[in-house]
Amino acid sequence: MTDTPIAEMTFEQAMRELESIVGQLDSGNVELDASIKLYERGAALKAHCEARLKDAEEKVAAITLDADGTPKGTEPFEAS
């Protein structure tokens, strides 16, 4: 577990730490209090990764294509 604030992590950093946490919890060699803290951080990392993926999906969905099908830019995303 790192001390890096989750909000400052890239998707890849958060996924690596989340995978590490899952491995530790799966091992069964972590004391109860530590397991709870790991689980809480893991839940926050999961939410962060989901938000980053959603942002990426929205950016990809906003890419516009020209007449030849070549990406030419993005359109502003309008949340509903």
Keywords:
80 residues; 2 helices; two-stranded antiparallel ribbon; elongated; mainly alpha
What is the strand and helix layout of this fold?
Blueprint: H1 11-27, H2 32-61, E1 63-65, E2 71-74
Antiparallel strand pairs: 1-2
Instruction: Give the strand order, joined by hyphens, for the main sheet.
Output: 1-2
* Major β-sheet profile: 2 strands, antiparallel
Give the termini separation: 37 Å
- Can you give the mean pLDDT? 87
In terms of DSSP E residues, the strand content is 5-15%
| Count of beta strands | 2
- Global outline: elongated
Number of helices: 2
**Radius of gyration over all CA atoms, rounded:** 18 Å
Low-confidence stretches: none
Q: Return the string of H and E elements.
A: HHEE
Helix/strand structural class: mainly alpha
Helical residues, percent: 55-70%
Describe the protein in words.
The chain is mainly alpha-helical and 80 residues long. It contains two helices and two strands; from the N terminus they run ααββ. The protein has helices at residues 11-27, 32-61, and strands at 63-65, 71-74. The chain has a two-stranded antiparallel ribbon. Strand 1 and strand 2 (71-74) form a beta hairpin. Helix 1 runs antiparallel to helix 2. The longest helix is centred in the middle third of the chain and has 30 residues, at 32-61. The termini are far apart. The mean pLDDT is 87.
